Amino acid sequence: MFGFHLKPLRGNLSLETTWNASWSDYFVQIFRRSLALDQKVNGTRKDLRRLVELAITHVVPQVLGPLEADGRPIKPSLIHEDLWGGNIGTDSKTGEIYIFDASAHYAHYEMEIAIWRPHPLSVVGSGAYVSEYLAQMGASEPVEQFYDRQKLYSTCTVMHAAACHNGDWFREEIRENPRYLLEKYAPGLAVAGTCDDAS
């Protein structure tokens, strides 16, 4: 099952981790929770709400659905969920690397690195770290959709971060990822406008 028996905090806000057997359905529940948090903290933005709902309807089935095509299972993996440079340290006596401040839950393992894309204070967003992650963990099939899955996962992660940090660093990522994905997977939909339109 995907989820967790507690509602862990990521930053100062809780994740929606109600157990779910379907990865796509579980992702949608945390995606909608992230949107709700962002709208509550940063104000309602009709265009963002519309982009998220269009992504749920048109992108999630095409980007997450194939993960379980042809009888492939997605094994729930316990992920840290807030893995960036500020939550990684080195023991000064032993040189051992340690991580802390986890927002752990069971998810698709690739979601672990979604936070790396936009984080302005973390070197782990560089291509070298993603390349090493892929060398160690591999990408799920279909491999060619890995970066599209990252854009989708990152949008969810970024909306939660925008709620935690009053949106200051994350506006572009929230706006651009779903637009890119909708243009690719649902061409012809009207996705113009800005995320800053208040209702």
TrEMBL record:
Pfam families: Fructosamin_kin (PF03881). It catalyses: N(6)-D-ribulosyl-L-lysyl-[protein] + ATP = N(6)-(3-O-phospho-D-ribulosyl)-L-lysyl-[protein] + ADP + H(+). It comes from the Eukaryota. It is an enzyme of class 2 (transferase). Gene3D superfamilies: 3.90.1200.10. Its EC number is 2.7.1.172. One of its GO terms (molecular function) is protein-ribulosamine 3-kinase activity. This is protein-ribulosamine 3-kinase. It comes from Dichotomopilus funicola.
